[in-house]
Amino acid sequence: MRALAVEDDPRIAADVAAALAGAGFTTQTCGDGEEAWFLGDTEDFDLIVLDLGLPGMDGLSVLKRWRAGGCETPVLVLTARGAWQERVEGIEAGADDYLPKPFRMEELVARARALVRRAAGRGGAVQEAGALSLDTNRMTASVRGVPVPLTALEYRLLAYLVLNRDRVIAPTELLEHLYGDDDAREANALEAVVARLRRKLGAGIIGTRRGFGYFIEEAGA
Amino acid sequence: MRALAVEDDPRIAADVAAALAGAGFTTQTCGDGEEAWFLGDTEDFDLIVLDLGLPGMDGLSVLKRWRAGGCETPVLVLTARGAWQERVEGIEAGADDYLPKPFRMEELVARARALVRRAAGRGGAVQEAGALSLDTNRMTASVRGVPVPLTALEYRLLAYLVLNRDRVIAPTELLEHLYGDDDAREANALEAVVARLRRKLGAGIIGTRRGFGYFIEEAGA
DNA sequence: CAGCCACTGTCAGCTTGCTGTCAGCCACGC
DNA sequence: GCGTGGCTGACAGCAAGCTGACAGTGGCTG
User: A88, B56, B79, B116: least CB-packed within 10 angstroms?
Assistant: First the structure.
């Protein structure tokens, strides 16, 4: 597994490289936008971790050029704390996930793993998980063939759970994914969304592990 | 710590073995590709130092076969000076680090240590320890293949023991890990958690050394 | 611009089951 | 045999999570 870490702060770059190495990646670091573009375009990485604030060339531009050039490597974008707009722009430019700084290394590794796994196995637009199927193009869900209308927020939550269906997602991670950590919602907001989702989807789809978080139930259909 | 040095020049092989011995490794040497493949596949080393220029079977082929066979031992590749291509090929074949010849022995030892340290910390998603296996994604444990439901606290305790399976953990350290040292629980709280864990996991998983602390039993199943 | 409607955060009260405490027991080590 | 450190079963307190109601907000329509 080869990873590229694009990050201008050498200390953070080293930390990221070390963490990824621990997860089995051979990591190359790069602190300059132009060089990053070149590397991502010519070499074959399994994952790219991209900081948006860069000298040489802006991270967003680099990302857009990669995508324009047909590069499909999963990209995990690091955004500054509270830069909500950066996150949206990042997704629109083709990022696969984002992580607000500061972050814990375990978090980075977990997301990196998820991205690689996702890229490897399931490229398909429609994701199946037990009785649930999710059409990521139409942004719709259906249970046992019956379509279920979802709101934007509900869909984003469900999609995140499905894409990371092989692990338990902590409420904090979900909150951070749905809203920025800058924008502090009460934890209860999440519970409310989950409750509404459960009511729509029926039982046996979203499970809870007390003290850990939420997950998609696959086994007991 | 066991190391395997694959090197056809007997003088260099002896030097490498001596240097590694100084770093605490028990080193076995081997000058032939076929034999190296067999050894790496059947024995359990903590580190392999591999010279690419070999009689019998090419070093790269040996490495690829190891990786294809599921061997995850960290491999440090020795490449000829300036052979840039060899380095790339080596990494792609699954090498964890490379060292261009000629090198200073201190350099070799430093890299060897780093590799081993990295490998030790590398968290595959599932950790095995004797009859116990721990899925760090799903936050679940299973004993001899039978899944065991754990609460958050039980899981955290067990995970800490498994990650530090090579030593005995003092109760104070565990208390500090589970709760903050600011938050003072009675020592008995820990014993209660251990008791509950033992009941769920069965005997022979968590051991006690009176006066020292707890540890994961690996040998006696 | 006003009115409507769907969406979503907040709140209060409730349920559930985790977890610390306690008292008594066991067993190891001297 | 005795003392101490560790183990265990019972139990109550408490916090995590669930739910139904409600209100604020923003977008859409007439």
Answer: A88
